[in-house]
Amino acid sequence: MTLRVAVIGSGPAGIYTAEALVKQAQEDVQVDVIERLPTPYGLVRYGVAPDHTSIKSIANYLRRVLELPEVRFLGGVTLGEHLSVEDLLGGYDAVVYATGAMVDRKLGIPGEDLPGSVAATDFVNWYCGHPDVSASMFTLDSPEVAVIGVGNVAVDVVRVLAKTAEELSSTDVPHDVLERLGESQVKAIHMIGRRGPEHAKFTLKELRELGELANADVCVREDEAVVLGGDFPRQIRGNIDVLRSWAGRDPVGRPRRLDVRFWLRPVEILGTDRVEGLRLERTRLSEEGRVVGTGEFETIPVGMVLRSVGYQSVPLPGVPFDERSMTVPNEAGRIREREYVAGWLKRGPTGVIGTNKSDAAETVRTLLSDLAGHDRLRSAPIDALLGERGVRPVTYDEWLAIEAAEGALAKSLGRGERVKLAGLEAMLRACRP
Questions:
Q1: How far is it, in rounded angstroms, from Cα 341 to Cα 29?
Q2: Distance separating alpha carbons of residues 329 and 346, to the nearest angstrom
Q3: What is the residue-wise DSSP string for 397-414?
Q4: Which residue pairs, CB below 8 angstroms and at least 24 apart, start in 263-267?
Q5: Interval 49-101: pLDDT, tens
Q6: Cβ contact 264:192 at 8 Å
Q7: CA-CA distance, 100 to 311, in Å (whole number)?
Q8: CA atoms within 13 A on the CB side of 105
């Protein structure tokens, strides 16, 4: 009897889980990859910066998994709305949750809820064409913007803010978004870290890209680039060397300026009806290695604050969740009988895209060991249940029609290989004319 497994989420963690099931199972297996959006690939499609085409090419690998005869893509199906956990356990022998980490952490400071104070993930979703975010969400009408955080997501955000629309025209940025980027009034971008250069989380390759920006001067203050001793790994030493090389150099008059700041923490976002400024406190490390304030403050007159201080997962309806770790409690991927978890929802937002492969393999080993020799408990075919509820999942062939429409749009606009369709309605029109 065929082993039937549902994987909830079609990002790298979910698709690697499907691949591991096909490879590891010692019996016939059928995997349904269930996704609330009509499009697969998760953060590969909606999180990787549009100008990072080499990373986005991992979608070609994920595509091959979805095209395996044992794997089926069901888009436009939402857990908690169209299906419950009980429905899934009635239709499958096991369920693996792999929905990732979809929201930003809060700063927890006064003024954070003012208009103009937003999560960096919302901005990333905007320029990546995520259907949850309208193309009209951002109007870049402020001359100065602050990005809180010094990780790769923050670097992506400041790079997109610093580039011209012409530089991004060959990418897959939705056309309405590209037009708004072309109208940007941003002149100064402040990227702010609470600790020093040796604690920054960006990779050396990402950092060096900032120094190659044609449209922005990149500036670092000499006193903030000081690093006191320490035997640092090669990656960190490289970051320090690059930042030191930028410190103190004079701007050459490019249209925009990027200030990379360290040893500052946001303490208040200022404004009445919207963001008008950001108050920062100088920091240092205590003897215990904690970040503490020095009582020295400065204010920068920004009109938008983008927080990029880490991702976190959100609870799924009917699935256990630990509010402290913001993950699903598990043992080697096992949550409880016939329920499993993989990816960031399992371990937190750590590692790179490829880390999800070994993580998924561990979960699948646990799942297959648990189910070996056990009777199949499913009772209600999921297709019939969806049909009764008037839900018509987006098939893999329909996703390919969306992809083809994006290619045709790019050709008509003279823009690269593809331009993302903006919004669910446009996607569904493309695949169901």
A1: 18
A2: 7
A3: HHHHHHHHHHHHHHHHHT
A4: 263/193, 263/194, 263/195, 263/196, 263/224, 264/192, 264/193, 264/194, 264/298, 265/194, 265/291, 265/293, 266/107, 266/109, 266/146, 266/148, 266/192, 266/305, 267/109, 267/293, 267/297
A5: 999 887 777 899 999 999 999 999 999 999 999 999 999 999 999 999 999 87
A6: yes
A7: 9
A8: 15
**Residue at 18: amino acid letter:** A
Determine the pLDDT at residue 378.
67
Query: What single-letter amino acid sits at 81?
Result: E
Q: Is the pLDDT of residue 33 over 90?
A: yes
Q: Is 423 left (phi over 0), alpha (psi -120 to 50) or beta?
A: left
Query: Which tokens sit at 373?
Result: 């020799």
pTM of the model: 0.92
For the beta carbon of residue 27, count every other beta carbon within 10 angstroms.
Answer: 10
By CB atoms closer than 10 A (0-12, 13-18, 19+), residue 375 is exposed
Residue 159: CB partners within 8 Å, gap ≥ 6? 49, 51, 209, 210, 213
Which residue do the tokens 């402040």 mark? 190
